[in-house]
Amino acid sequence: MKKITEYGFISSKKDGKLIIERLNEFLAPLKRSFAKNKSDSYLKGYLPYVYKYVYFNLNKDVGTFMELIPNEDTKSNYKYPDNKNVAWIFKVLIHEHFPGYEKEKTEKFINNIINAVDIEYLILLESENIED
Question: Is 38 helix (H, G, I), strand (E, B) or coil?
């Protein structure tokens, strides 16, 4: 796996609630969940895309930072305009310096959480450079 991967859930805007429910159900046994972030200062990091909110989860136990982001922003701009059938982007950053990172354990965790959503997806981006 690359250090950053963006998965696109082939879905509609309405599926966001279902996706978050399934992600949180998966994380519940670990006593973790995704949080909704509406902070202007945080959301400015997505410019030029303008979002009302994004969901995120930091899990140092497996070395991941994950976000669920709409593909279409509030101004009808798409991050991935060639994939308008993707309403939600699941961004996963792997941080090898986190104390719980172990290659096999982390990759298994990522595969399991994506499969727990139980919605068809495609890979939109893979990179070794977290700055992409």
Answer: coil
Cα distance between residue 79 and residue 74, in whole Å: 12
pTM of the entire structure? 0.91
Domains defined along the chain, listed by start: 4-127 (3.30.310)
CA–CA distance, 59 with 57 (Å, rounded to integer)? 6
Q: How far apart are the first and last CA of the chain?
A: 16
Q: What percent of the chain has pLDDT over 90?
A: 73
For 57-111, what is each residue's pLDDT tens digit?
A: 988 888 889 999 999 999 999 999 999 999 999 999 888 767 777 788 888 989 9
User: Cβ neighbours of residue 54 under 8 Å, at least 6 residues apart?
Assistant: 36, 37, 42, 43, 46, 67, 68, 69, 70
Q: Which two tokens stand for residue 34?
A: 């995704």
Tell me how far apart the alpha carbons of residues 75 and 24 are, in angstroms, rounded to a whole number.
28
In which order are the strands placed within the sheet that holds 86-94?
35-37, 54-59, 64-70, 86-94, 4-10, 121-127
CB 1 within 8 A of CB 94: yes
